[in-house]
Design a protein that fits this description.
By secondary structure, the chain is an alpha/beta fold. The chain is built from 16 helices and 23 strands. The protein is globular, with a radius of gyration of 24 Å.
Length: 631
């Protein structure tokens, strides 16, 4: 798929992430004569074990990883002076090739709230169905059953998720449903499906199912290790891109610039960090930003790089019973456990290799940061008693945004069975559980722009905005307390890991530690003092992190409202240039964002096909080899 001697294509994609793979793959399928080039800064993921075996995904979060870019934010008073770090994918397939594979979809009303013509839920639900093959339940009206991306139930269930649901439906007094990703169900406990092929046990990603399966098409080109510097214009018409060898993926390669031309269209698809940077380097953006980087302004678009959104997550470890089944032996690298599970996975795709580490990984650097998926979740909304307990600071946000939108959850609460975080070397080898919770519609927003350092090298001016709005920390503080009460009642619970919890004052009833077993289901809740509440608040300012759901920095909004692209994804002020990735989302979405990135890709493909007069044909996957043959 790589013949870098060509100098002109019909369409060039600046970035080879999830959305780019969907758009390019669909267009190539519908019109194989269309010449398409994808330029990706990272490397190939084709049949690479680290990308197709679900349990390996934590390796991408290692500090030495070259499959992720580590974006360091500016220190924030809201985070007690911390500089947040937000990773984004750097490989073919983008986030779909490295994420935790948990399947979540936003409520349909999120897309109606965007207020963009052609992007309402009635326009997008058919595309949501088109994307997927839903293997969890048959005959669900909002799900698809013949799409390229496979969605399956957990095939190797551990007990913690079931305990979490049982306590949630009794103590927490919420309902249970098999499917809470039907675009409207909320406040209900459910199993958590995965973007994993239920037959093969492989990750179901955009790269393999939209692009690599068309290796026979010589007109679909994929050049890896290429960093797009800027878009080339002639009289404000995009005619190509300038690129170099990526210094991270190809550190020893020549760094001189090259130009490749596009006769029909350039599509910037480099994500919430990469897309605004490419546009700014191309002279599109706010005058002050460009001037400080010695870039001549072509188009004044001050909205570029603004409107940064994410979700805020915290992971909290607990001790688990010796008899509990967790991922801890595998995460600690016990070779016999790993080889046993790999052997079973290669036979039928069923083992901890396919399921956990999809479910439970926590891995990060510098401070106690974790990452996890789960067997079980609830898209949580507070009831009247919980709202009262949350206090007055959250009331304005509740009334303004949530109260009259019953399909919108405040946060997702979930469980992970096993611990593999940075505290691992300080913890005894045993079983652990992790509670995690993340807010879906934080009020705070941030920004990301290019800048030059003191040596004239390009850097990033990134304000994450986490917890800047006072209402955003309230659900996290309450989430800690609620999740602790749920975990205290689970049969596998054996206490809190003290170094992973708030530092409560000596003598407090909330002080953490190991115990011999759970409390009774009807036991009273812990009572927290004002000092305890302050400890929880400080804990969250010290620990809250990205959920890797960055979006919004090239917003699809009116130009007068700091918009960057119109409803057809055209960049304002120029021609033959579009943006297609999560950066175009004008508002946040209440979901893990892989589902939305796929959706944007399907919509963008239809828009481009319509403009080029290409017929949108039904999808058919084709591949010349068994996808597992190269493992």
């Amino acid at each position: 798929m790589s013949h870098p001697d060509r100098s002109e294509f019909d369409i060039i994609f600046a970035g080879g992430g999830t959305t780019a793979c969907v758009v390019a793959g669909r267009l190539a399928e519908w019109d194989p004569s269309l010449s398409i080039l994808i330029l990706e800064g990272g490397q190939h993921t084709l049949n690479q074990a680290a990308h197709v075996q679900p349990y390996r995904f934590p390796s991408h979060l290692a500090p030495t990883s070259t499959t992720m870019t580590f974006n360091v934010g500016n220190p924030s008073p809201s985070l007690n002076g911390r500089a947040p770090i937000v990773q984004c994918a750097r490989c073919v397939g983008g986030g779909s090739s490295v994420n935790a594979m948990v399947y979540t979809r936003a409520p349909a009303s999120d897309f109606d709230d965007w207020g963009v013509d052609g992007w309402g839920s009635e326009n997008l639900i058919p595309l949501m169905k088109k994307v997927e093959t839903y293997e969890v339940q048959p005959d669900r009206p909002t799900h698809g059953y013949s799409g390229p991306i496979k969605v399956s139930p957990a095939r190797c269930k551990l007990g913690g998720g079931q305990e979490f649901i049982r306590v949630g439906t009794t103590y927490h007094k919420r309902q249970y449903a098999e499917d809470t990703d039907d675009l409207e169900t909320c406040n209900t406990y459910s199993p958590w499906a995965k973007y994993v092929d239920g037959t093969t046990g492989r990750r179901s990603d955009a790269a393999h199912h939209y692009v690599y399966n068309q290796a026979h098409n010589v007109n679909l080109q994929l050049w890896v290790g290429k960093r797009v510097k800027r878009v080339i214009f002639q009289d404000k018409r995009a005619v190509g891109v300038e690129f170099t060898n990526d210094p991270v993926s190809c550190p020893d390669a020549d760094q001189s610039s090259n130009i490749v031309r596009a006769s029909k269209l350039v599509v910037v698809s480099a994500g919430a960090f990469g897309s605004p940077a490419i546009l700014e380097r191309s002279g599109i953006g706010a005058e002050a930003i460009l001037k400080r980087c010695d870039i001549q302004q072509l188009v004044d678009l001050p909205g570029i790089g603004e409107n940064y959104h994410d979700h805020n997550v915290v992971f909290v470890p607990y001790f688990a019973a010796d008899e509990a089944i967790t991922m801890d032996t595998l995460w600690r690298g016990k070779e016999s456990v790993l080889q046993e599970n790999l052997a079973q996975w290669k036979i039928n795709g069923n083992s901890l290799v396919a399921q956990k580490l999809v479910q439970n990984l926590q891995y990060w650097c510098r401070i106690d940061r974790h990452f996890s998926g789960s067997d079980a979740k609830i898209k949580w909304r507070p009831d009247d008693d919980e709202l009262k307990a949350m206090g007055s600071a959250f009331q304005p946000r509740w009334k303004e945004f949530f109260q009259d939108r019953p399909d919108k959850a405040v946060a997702i609460l979930a469980i992970s069975e096993g611990y593999a975080g940075v505290l691992l070397s300080r913890l005894a080898p045993r079983n652990y559980l992790v509670a995690f919770y993340y807010t879906l519609y934080p009020a705070s927003t941030g920004s990301v722009h290019i800048k030059l350092d003191e040596n004239g090298q390009e850097g990033i001016d990134f304000n994450a905005g986490y917890l800047d709005d006072p209402s955003d920390i309230v659900p996290l503080n309450f989430g800690y307390k609620k999740m602790r009460e749920i975990f205290r009642r689970m049969p596998s619970y054996r206490g809190e890991v003290p170094i992973g919890h708030p530092c409560f004052p000596e003598g407090s009833a909330a002080v953490c530690g190991e115990t011999t077993g759970p409390v009774d289901l009807n036991a009273p809740d812990l009572i927290y003092t004002a000092e305890d509440d302050e400890a929880i608040d400080q804990y969250h300012r010290d620990r809250v992190q990205t959920t890797w759901h960055s979006l919004g920095t090239c917003a699809m909004k009116p130009r007068a409202d700091q918009g960057v692209v119109d409803a057809r994804l055209n960049v304002y002020g120029v021609t033959n240039l579009k943006v297609a990735d999560m950066s175009i989302a004008p508002k946040n979405v209440g979901t893990n964002t892989y589902s939305t990135a796929l959706l944007i890709g399907e919509k963008a493909a239809m828009i481009i096909a319509d403009e080029l007069g290409i017929e949108c044909k039904p999808h058919s996957e084709s591949s010349g080899e068994n996808p597992r043959s190269r493992l």
